[in-house]
Amino acid sequence: xxxxxxxxxxxxxxxxxxxxxxxxxxxxxxxxxxxxxxxxxxxxxxxxxxxxxxxxxxxxxxxxxxxxxxxxxxxxxxxxxxxxxxxxxxxxxxxxxxxxxxxxxxxxxxxxxxxxxxxxxxxxxxxxxxxxxxxxxxxxxxxxxxxxxxxxxxxxxxxxxxxxxxxxxxxxxxxxxxxxxxxxxxxxxxxxxxxxxxxxxxxxxxxxxxxxxxxxxxxxxxxxxxxxxxxxxxxxxxxxxxxxxxxxxxxxxxxxxxxxxxxxxxxxxxxxxxxxxxxxxxxxxxxxxxxxxxxxxxxxxxxxxxxxxxxxxxxxxxxxxxxxxxxxxxxxxxxxxxxxxxxxxxxxxxxxxxx
Length: 355
Prior knowledge:
With 355 residues, the chain is an alpha/beta fold. It has 14 helices and 12 strands. It has 2 domains: 3-150 and 334-350, Glycogen Phosphorylase B (Rossmann fold); 162-331, Rossmann fold. Helix content is 42%, strand content 14%. Helix 1 links the parallel strand 1 and strand 2 (30-31).
């Protein structure tokens, strides 16, 4: 019997962990719900829990005051990981990204990542390209495992058809609708998306930006974009979108569009494909492995006209066929297969001969 303690156990806005843990339980893995990365808990559970499975790291070291406060938290976290290792716990780290999207507490984060790369018995990434890059940085290839990011198919309500979705959002039935969806954060480069769409002089091409801005910078930026560009062709819905409303946005769109400044893995891209909505995205990170997929159009992020050309290409394509291809691609990232791979990794490190 394998027992793991995940960190985090669940997240409020992202069902990734909940879907993974449900699939792991179906494989016979026991997932601890009340794990605490503290010295008393580590000592108490050392005989009943074999593996600590870490995902996003910044909550363990980031302090809102930054600087020395974050560094102190990073040192404390690293010390706990070293203690866990000494107590006999195996450590798995799923590296969703090289560093936090918004670059919080850079020095502290670098310290934690470096220490975890030394201590982890297994590091999982979501694509072969990430494995190769991590290996080139000095991590032993045998410690790196590729496990895809699972899909969100069937998790969110999805009963509304295209015409109904467009009617409820006030969108024309015959337009080509491009959706920029999700929390508005700096790394998503919403400015480029809006400014590039303003240069596309086609009344049939509509951009819909939907999501809540995070932080003063993004609120100010979005208001500036609204004042300068908002029109019938560029629509900005700057608000929180409830789970049951996601279907309205993705089912009304012909494409989702992304302009990340930096990315390794994107759950937002997986979410779009899970709603059968094809994607336009920059050629970077794990997205590069989707090159050649008929569900994804990639463009060179360093080309000033790259995104515009990708949008014009998308406008010429058959939407029905693309939606079928997108959903098929998303379904290939099944949680059953992902849990099976993790179970193999867990067994491998538990039964590995001591060094």
